[in-house]
Amino acid sequence: MKKRQSILSSMLITTAIVLAACGSTTGGASESVSSETSNPDESQTIVIGAQASDVQIWEYIAQTDAAKEAGVTLEVEEVNGGPQLNTATVEGEVDVNAFQSWAYLKSFNEESGADLTAFATTYLEPMGIYSDKFKAIEEVAEGSVVAIADNPSNASRGLLLLQAAGLITLPDEFDALGTTSDIIDNPKNLEFVEIDDTTGPRVLQDVDLVLIGNTIAMEGGLNVLEDSLFHEEISKDTKDNINILVTQKENADNEDILKLGELYHSEEAQEYIEEQFEGTKVPVQEEISYLEE
């Protein structure tokens, strides 16, 4: 797995010496250390980049007995901003990132030309429709103003949620890069304004409806299961919104990196996540092929 030279250069030098002693060649310091050449009693350090609540989760997982038993040492680095986290992964500044949905990864790879790879699913964090004006979806009035994310993946996700709530209709071919221009039926003549989706809770008083992801909602004191008018549930229609662990393509088969998916779903970690986030991070343990179908 790739290491940041500024943090892990000494480890890379040590690894090179060990591999040389075993008669192995790696083609450079950026190559992965395979489990066959690693001392089974030594923990392999993996730098995992995260933001918001995922930082808290992975700092906890790093200290679990499960991590120790797996022989993995996790170094958690907080990086704010989805594009920044993916770029840090592309450039090898972090080995793995934990923050994004399957749809977000597809959008990033398509727009940037990167080839980042998902290797494990973690959870569905439901997006919700929130309002300070209405108490139920049925109350939404003609011409209501809806605040929607200004980034493609969360905007399309929000539109699919509005459709699930019965407020709009989208074409069958609507995908992760769809926009409001794709709406084919808008019976309540909803008006849309784009916002930085991290500001969702702060604009509740300024608009009629706001589409807010659960991480941001929780930071604003909202619980999607209790405070939203309508929210996502796990189904084939929401599988693009399942969160994933991501690494560089060449690292996706690395045995130590693959352990992170198992660590996330360990009983120890799941009990902690359930308690800390009140059930709003719904665990999903599926093969990546499930998302690709």
UniProtKB/TrEMBL annotation:
<dbReference type="Pfam" id="PF03180">
    <property type="entry name" value="Lipoprotein_9"/>
</dbReference>
<keyword id="KW-0732">Signal</keyword>
<comment type="similarity">
    <text>Belongs to the NlpA lipoprotein family.</text>
</comment>
<protein>
    <submittedName>
        <fullName>D-methionine transport system substrate-binding protein</fullName>
    </submittedName>
</protein>
<dbReference type="GO" id="GO:0016020">
    <property type="term" value="C:membrane"/>
</dbReference>
<feature type="signal peptide">
    <location>
        <begin position="1"/>
        <end position="20"/>
    </location>
</feature>
<keyword id="KW-0564">Palmitate</keyword>
<dbReference type="InterPro" id="IPR004872">
    <property type="entry name" value="Lipoprotein_NlpA"/>
</dbReference>
<keyword id="KW-0472">Membrane</keyword>
<keyword id="KW-0449">Lipoprotein</keyword>
